[in-house]
Design brief:
- The complex is a heterodimer of chains A (about 250) and B (about 575).
- With about 250 residues, chain A is α/β, with parallel strands linked by helices.
- In chain A, strands 9-8-7-10-6-1-4-5-11 form a nine-stranded mixed beta sheet, sandwiched between helices.
- Chain A is built from six helices and eleven strands.
- Chain B is globular.
- Chain B has about 575 residues and is α+β, with helices and mostly antiparallel strands.
- Chain B starts with 7 loop residues before the first helix and ends in an 8-residue tail after the last helix.
- Chain B contains 19 helices and ten strands.
- The chains are: A alpha/beta (about 250), B alpha+beta (about 575).
- At the A-B interface, helix 2 and helix 5 of A face helix 2 of B.
Chain lengths: ~250, ~575
């Protein structure tokens, strides 16, 4: 089975994000970048499928040179090949990224394409659908269980308060959700092997970027808590405030 | 391995600054840095999911699942060369890795360090190709776990006094090994032992007992283990006695040469100390995170603790001392990675300074946590217990200080009065290596100034140079005054050692910040410049005090009091 996993490099969740002076970017100097955690589920699932059925896993990522380290992380888990689509920066518009990715995906004739359900930095959660449209194949989003049998795919996906089971044929796109699997740790052997894999570099021209980031702002400081009282008498006032001021009940 | 190597610190005692060993501050090669990033990411993920330091401490063992997990991921082969399936990390990346591991738990780096830093290190450094091919692939996977067996009940600091015997059986081509080894880390887990034993060697018709190093495995039979020691800290690491009874060790299992085992042991320990130093700092870094959470949240008198000057001073001092110690450690591992240098003094200095900075730092963190610090629910008391051993094992800090000072002045002794030779034996007695020759005097254009540094560090540089000169002058004076009796004047040599450690810390810090400025700019490095300059000012004042008290001190009184109390064996005074 020929599988592609589209991955994105994102800032570590523990990083303190600092907004750039232009207010339209974030400062990258002290950021620790990691492989998007949702994409890791995709890498793991792809590896499990090829371990069972044979085949190859190709990692595809778009971005500046720094993304190579995250590609290496995915290779160290056991992926076989990688393509780095070079770009000075990640465009704000997911559609522009989807254009570039689908261009590369079309050349590969992949049976399955994985991507995380969303990237934890900009949280657009659009990639699977955008790719599906461009490649004219089905997409199943937010998948928590997956069975692949020949060219039959059976996926369980999370919907509000329930799980939906969908079947389709390959090729298709799967966006992965926590719970699908436990991504493996990259063993030192895998890291060594990954060093020997040549990452194919592709130039890209990002066009058709229709979204512009106007401004980043820090979330407002938490306002101080208010103590209404410490006896049962204060409860009505508390309820009134929660209703009228905080508007949470 | 050549015996002719230059040593920055030994030269320092002679007033010579080999600054090309120090500048620029070393850094990992790109590929090594990438590898390190990936494996530390792997470890961090694994640790978050699987490692619970409280459980390890309470159970007094590392669970089989954790050990198996680490084996599977490859953490038993970090420093084993790639051609034997290892990860081939250099000293810098390996030490950084131990520091990362120590941030999660203190027993784990002990287990991994006893295996790699010392247990199998002799095999890497001195083993034959056949020996390496036979054992390293099994040690890489953790199928075999290694331990280093030097210490005996009667031979601790006096390592040359070991009694374990190896008797040669020429007919069967094996040695018969008998004896026991004490406090062996990984004792309960290991099946591969680097053992030091004495054998009778005949040379020119004369017989003498010499130490030889052997590779011993449990399948040779005759090896048994004592019970697990009940320790104050690092409880998860295994520590037992190991008994050898008529163990048949084939001739081909000698490591290095017959009778040269002592050198093997000392080379291994020289490299091991840097790892230990780096690891101890990792534990402190982690505890600082807890402490900073506490002092920025806990309020008294309507202020958070970090708003009080008494706490500010502690936070700043911790940071400064940690920065300087870290600068020493990774300068030293950089020297180790360059190869063909004598780093024995530097690694000893790192071990002394880093373990003491950690001990004091952990103590200060506990103090800042106040009553919480004393409670078992919080990590402070565990860290305190765990970090205490660092100042004792792999050479007590006292023995290492004597080693640093005597090795330093021995060079001058050789040059001045030919008393250097007389000093060699007693230093050897401390279990340390001294037989590196001194080439630098002949080969180099020597200088007592260092190259130019950034303007913001000039004052620190000048202080360093001045106090180097003073160390040199004082060392010579002390040697002239005491001759070879200097080896008994420990109160004096300890001060020389402390001065040398501070000087090394100064230059390491200056070099680190200087290289940082060169790579970035002064503005970005502003705070690091401040840390460096503050440290250097504190350090040279300590150097001054140490050197001044070599002449003006109360050593005679202290000696007299100590002798009297030793006579009566208790504290005899009371008030009425």
């Amino acid at each position: 089975m020929n599988i592609a996993v589209c991955v994105k490099q994102v800032p570590d969740t523990e990083t303190r994000i600092q907004i750039g002076d232009d207010k339209k970017s974030i400062k990258e100097d002290d950021i620790k970048f990691i492989l998007n955690p949702y994409d890791e589920f995709g890498v793991e699932e792809a590896l499990k499928i090829t371990e069972k059925n044979g085949g190859e896993v190709t990692i595809i990522s778009l971005g500046p040179d720094r993304v190579v380290s995250s590609i290496r992380s995915a290779l160290a888990m056991g992926a076989h090949k990688a393509i780095h689509i070079k770009a000075d920066h990640n465009p704000a518009d997911p559609a522009a990224i989807a254009d570039a990715l689908s261009g590369v995906l079309k050349e590969g004739s992949y049976d399955l394409i994985f991507t995380g359900k969303q990237a934890i930095d900009d949280d657009h959660a659009q990639m699977a659908s955008l790719l599906a449209e461009r490649l004219d194949i089905p997409a199943i989003n937010v998948v928590v269980k997956l069975d692949v049998n020949g060219n039959k795919v059976r996926a369980e996906r999370e919907i509000e308060g329930a799980h939906e089971i969908i079947e389709c044929s390959t090729p298709c796109i799967i966006s992965t959700q926590r719970g699908l699997n436990e991504p493996r740790y990259a063993a030192l052997k895998g890291i060594m092997a990954a060093k020997k894999i040549m990452i194919e570099a592709r130039e890209s021209s990002i066009s058709n970027n229709q979204i512009e980031i106007v401004e980043y702002n820090y979330p407002p400081d938490k306002s101080k808590g208010k103590i209404i009282g410490d006896s049962a008498d204060s409860v009505p006032e508390l309820i009134r405030l929660l209703n009228e001021e905080a508007k949470v009940i | 391995m050549s015996d002719v190597k230059s040593s920055f610190s030994k030269a320092l005692f002679s007033g010579i600054i080999l600054d090309d060993l120090i500048f620029p501050y070393p850094k990992m090669k790109k590929e090594e840095a990438e590898n390190f990033a990936l494996i530390s990411e792997t470890f961090t993920k694994f640790a978050h999911d699987n490692i619970d330091p409280v459980k390890i401490d309470t159970d007094a063992e590392i669970s089989k699942e954790v050990i198996d997990g680490l084996k599977e991921l490859g953490f038993f082969g970090l420093n084993i060369p790639e051609q034997y399936d290892g990860f081939g990390l250099g000293a810098t990346a390996y030490t950084k890795m131990l520091a990362v591991i120590s941030e999660f738990d203190s027993s784990l780096p002990l287990m991994l360090g006893a295996h790699q830093s010392i247990g199998l290190k002799a095999l890497i450094l001195f083993g034959s190709e056949d020996q390496k091919k036979k054992y390293l692939p099994k040690l890489v996977t953790g199928e075999m776990i290694a331990a280093f067996c030097l210490t005996e009940p009667e031979a601790g600091s006096d390592a040359a006094g070991i009694k374990t015997k190896a008797v040669r059986d020429e007919k069967n081509k094996y040695y018969i090994l008998n004896g026991s080894k004490l406090w062996i880390t990984n004792g309960g887990l290991a099946d591969f032992f680097t053992v030091f034993a004495k054998e009778v060697i005949e040379k020119d018709g004369e017989q003498s007992e010499k130490i030889t190093a052997f590779l011993v495995t449990t399948d040779m039979g005759g090896i048994s283990r004592g019970k697990e020691e009940n320790k104050m800290g690092i409880k998860g690491s295994s520590t037992t006695e190991i008994y050898f009874q008529d163990v048949k060790v084939p001739f081909e299992n000698i490591i290095g040469e017959r009778g040269k085992g002592f050198k093997v042991a000392m080379e291994v320990l020289n490299t091991g100390r840097a790892g230990l130093a780096g690891g101890s700092l990792g534990a402190l870094k982690n505890l600082m995170k807890f402490t900073m959470q506490h002092v920025t949240q806990r309020k008294q008198f309507k202020k958070t603790l970090n708003q009080f000057e008494a706490i500010k001073k502690k936070i700043a001092q911790l940071t400064i001392d940690l920065y300087a110690a870290e600068s020493m450690v990774y300068l030293t591992t950089g020297l180790m990675d360059r190869g063909n240098l004598d780093y024995s003094l530097e690694s000893a200095m790192c071990k002394i300074r880093a373990t003491e900075v950690t001990w004091n730092g952990v103590n200060e963190c506990l103090q800042m946590a106040g009553g919480l610090g004393f409670m078992k629910e919080y990590p402070y008391e565990r860290c305190l217990r765990d970090s205490r051993i660092n100042m004792i094992f792999e050479g007590t800090n006292e023995i290492l200080r004597l080693f640093v000072a005597l090795s330093g002045i021995q060079e001058r002794g050789e040059y001045l009065k030919n008393i250097g030779k007389a000093l060699k034996d007693p230093i050897k007695g401390f279990g340390l290596l001294t037989d590196y020759a001194t080439v630098w005097i002949k080969e180099r254009i020597t200088t007592d100034r260092i190259r130019s540094v950034h303007a913001s560090l000039m004052a620190a540089k000048t202080d360093f140079e001045n106090w180097c000169k003073n160390l040199h002058i004082t060392s010579e004076r002390v040697l002239m005054a005491h001759g070879k009796d200097i080896m008994y004047r420990e109160m004096i040599t300890m001060r020389l050692a402390d001065a040398a450690i501070d000087l090394y810390a100064m230059i390491a810090t200056i070099s680190r910040v200087n290289s940082r400025i060169e790579e970035t700019n002064e503005e970005i490095c502003a705070r690091e410049i401040k840390i460096c300059n503050t440290f250097c000012q504190q350090a040279w004042r300590r150097v001054r005090r140490n050197l001044l008290t070599i002449d003006k001190n109360n050593d005679a009184e202290l000696t007299e009091i100590a002798d009297y109390i030793s006579d009566i064996k208790e504290y005899p005074y009371h008030t009425n």
